[in-house]
Amino acid sequence: MIDYTKFPRHKILCVDMKSFYASISAVMMGLDPLECYLAVVGNTERQGSVVLAASPKLKQDFKIKTGSRLFEIPNDPRIHIVNPKMDTFINVSTKITQLFYRYVPECDVHTYSIDESFLKVDGVMRMWNSVEEIAEHIQDAIMREFGLPCTIGIGDNMLISKLALDLESKKAPNGIVRWRYEDIPTKLWPVRPISKMWGIGKRMERNLNKMGIFTVGALAKYSLETLEKKFGIMGNQIFHHAWGIDLSELGAPVLQGQVSYGKSQILLRDYTTKDEIKAVILEICEEVAKRTRDHNKVGRTISLGIGYSKEEYSGGFHRSKTIESPTNITMDIYNTCIELFNTCYQHKTVRSISVTLSKIEEDANQQLTLFDERGLEKKRQLGYVMDGIRNKYGSKALFRAVSYTKGGTALYRAGLTGGHRS
Question: Which CATH superfamily is 189-242 part of?
Answer without folding.
Answer: 5' to 3' exonuclease, C-terminal subdomain (1.10.150.20)
